C-alpha cells in the first residue's frame, strides 16, 4: 500500500509539472493560438489529461466540509453577463490587431429558420455582440416551411466564401428538417458551434483537442473556473443529454476530471441524484423543474435552460425563465446563475471567441 501511494504521488507530481509546461508552451495543441490565455482562463483539454490511478481503499470517510448550510446566506450570483462583456472586449482587441496586421477580420455566417422567440432573441444578441467585437456578420433567414435543400444550399455558400470563418445554424430546427443531415454539410473548420461529429469525438477522447468546443458547455466551465469552483474530483450532475447542451457539457466536465452523472427524462427519482451533486447543471428547457429540494446545500447551480413566458410588462411581450426555480434554489446553493444574464451571454461570447480562433488559424495570426 505504501508503494502504491508513493507511485500515485510520483504520477501526480509529474502530471503537475507537465500541466505547467503544456499550458505555458501550448506546443501540444496543433491549433493553439497566441491569444487564448489573454482572453480565457480555461486550459487546453490535452493539458488536463492524467492517467487513472485507482486507490482500492481509503480511511477517510468524513463528509465534505466545503459546502455552506442552507441557512447561512443566500447564494452568490454568477454574473455571466459581466464575464461575457470582459471576454468580448478582449476578442475585440484581437480582432482590431488582426485587421491592422493582416487587413482581414473574422466573419460569421448565421442561418435562422422560423420565428421562435428564444431563437430570435439569441440571434439578435449575436448580431449585437459581433458589431461590438468588429466581427463581420451575415444572417440568412428562412420561413418555418423551408426545405432542407434550401438550408443546405445556404450553408454551402458560406462554406465556399473565404470571408466567413464560422457558420452558425440556430437550433433547434423545425421538426420536418433533419438536423443531422443539415449540420453534416458544415465545413469542419467553420463549425464554430462545435457540433460536428469530429469535434464531438475529439472532445470525448482523452489526448485529443477538438477544433472547437461547443459554446454553451465552454461558457459554463469558463464561469466555474472564473468563480473559483473546483471541478476536479467533484460530483457533477447534468440534467439532459441533448447533442447541443447536455452531452457536450458532460464530456467537458469529464475532461476536467469531475465525476459526472447524467439525468435523463427516463431517470426515476431524479431529485435523489441531483441532491448528491456538488455541481448541478440543467439544460432541458422545462421551466422551474429543479426545485430547492433538488439541490444539495452549498452546491453550485448552473441553469442553461430557457423558456419564454408571456409578460405584457416586458418590451418584447415575454420574459425568459430557466429550468431552476431560482427563488428556492438560491436559498440552498452557494453559487447560482440567473436566467437571463447567466449562461446565455457566455454562449455568445464563446461563439465570438471560436470565430476569432477559426480566423486565426486561417491567417496564421498570433
Automatic annotation (TrEMBL):
Keywords: Hydrolase, Multifunctional enzyme, NADP, One-carbon metabolism, Oxidoreductase, Photorespiration. The keyword Ribosomal protein does not apply. CDD domains: NAD_bind_m-THF_DH_Cyclohyd. The keyword Oxidoreductase applies. GO terms for cellular component: cytosol. It comes from the Eukaryota. It catalyses: (6R)-5,10-methylene-5,6,7,8-tetrahydrofolate + NADP(+) = (6R)-5,10-methenyltetrahydrofolate + NADPH. It holds the Pfam family THF_DHG_CYH. Residues 214-362 form the Tetrahydrofolate dehydrogenase/cyclohydrolase NAD(P)-binding domain. Catalyzes the oxidation of 5,10-methylenetetrahydrofolate to 5,10-methenyltetrahydrofolate and then the hydrolysis of 5,10-methenyltetrahydrofolate to 10-formyltetrahydrofolate. Residues 78-193 form the Tetrahydrofolate dehydrogenase/cyclohydrolase catalytic domain. GO terms for molecular function: methenyltetrahydrofolate cyclohydrolase activity; methylenetetrahydrofolate dehydrogenase (NADP+) activity. Homodimer. Pathway: One-carbon metabolism; tetrahydrofolate interconversion. Belongs to the tetrahydrofolate dehydrogenase/cyclohydrolase family. One of its GO terms (biological process) is photorespiration. This is Methenyltetrahydrofolate cyclohydrolase.
Amino acid at each position: 500500500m505504501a508503494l502504491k501511494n508513493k507511485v500515485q504521488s510520483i504520477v501526480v507530481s509529474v502530471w503537475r509539472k507537465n500541466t505547467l509546461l503544456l499550458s505555458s508552451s501550448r506546443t501540444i495543441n496543433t491549433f493553439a493560438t497566441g491569444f487564448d490565455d489573454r482572453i480565457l482562463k480555461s486550459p487546453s483539454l490535452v493539458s488536463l489529461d492524467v492517467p487513472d490511478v485507482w486507490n482500492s481503499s481509503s480511511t477517510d470517510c468524513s463528509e465534505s466540509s466545503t459546502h455552506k448550510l442552507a441557512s447561512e446566506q443566500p447564494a452568490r450570483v454568477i454574473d455571466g453577463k459581466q464575464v461575457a462583456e470582459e471576454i468580448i472586449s478582449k476578442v475585440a482587441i484581437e480582432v482590431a490587431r488582426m485587421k491592422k496586421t493582416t487587413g482581414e477580420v473574422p466573419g460569421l455566417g448565421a442561418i435562422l429558420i422560423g420565428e421562435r422567440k428564444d431563437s430570435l432573441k439569441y440571434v439578435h444578441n449575436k448580431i449585437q455582440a459581433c458589431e461590438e467585437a468588429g466581427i463581420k456578420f451575415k444572417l440568412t433567414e428562412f420561413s418555418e416551411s423551408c426545405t432542407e435543400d434550401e438550408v443546405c444550399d445556404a450553408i454551402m455558400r458560406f462554406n465556399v466564401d473565404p470571408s466567413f470563418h464560422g457558420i452558425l445554424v440556430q437550433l433547434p430546427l423545425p421538426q420536418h428538417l433533419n438536423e443531422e443531415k443539415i449540420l453534416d454539410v458544415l465545413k469542419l473548420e467553420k463549425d464554430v458551434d462545435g457540433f460536428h461529429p469530429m469535434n464531438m469525438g475529439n472532445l470525448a477522447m482523452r489526448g485529443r483537442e477538438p477544433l472547437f468546443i461547443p459554446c454553451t458547455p465552454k461558457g459554463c466551465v469558463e464561469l466555474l473556473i472564473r468563480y473559483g469552483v473546483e471541478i476536479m474530483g467533484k460530483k457533477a450532475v447534468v440534467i439532459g443529454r441533448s447533442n447541443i447542451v447536455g452531452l457536450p457539457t458532460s464530456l467537458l466536465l469529464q475532461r476536467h476530471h469531475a465525476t459526472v452523472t447524467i439525468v435523463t427524462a427516463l431517470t426515476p427519482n431524479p431529485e435523489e441524484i441531483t441532491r448528491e451533486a456538488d455541481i448541478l447543471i440543467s439544460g432541458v428547457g422545462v421551466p422551474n423543474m429543479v426545485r430547492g429540494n433538488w439541490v444539495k446545500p452549498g452546491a453550485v447551480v448552473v441553469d442553461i435552460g430557457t423558456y419564454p413566458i408571456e409578460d405584457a410588462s416586458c418590451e418584447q411581450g415575454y420574459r425568459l425563465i430557466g429550468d431552476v426555480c431560482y427563488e428556492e434554489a438560491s436559498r440552498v446553493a452557494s453559487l447560482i446563475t440567473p436566467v437571463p444574464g447567466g449562461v446565455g451571454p457566455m454562449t455568445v461570447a464563446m461563439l465570438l471567441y471560436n470565430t476569432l480562433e477559426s480566423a486565426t488559424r486561417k491567417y496564421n495570426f498570433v
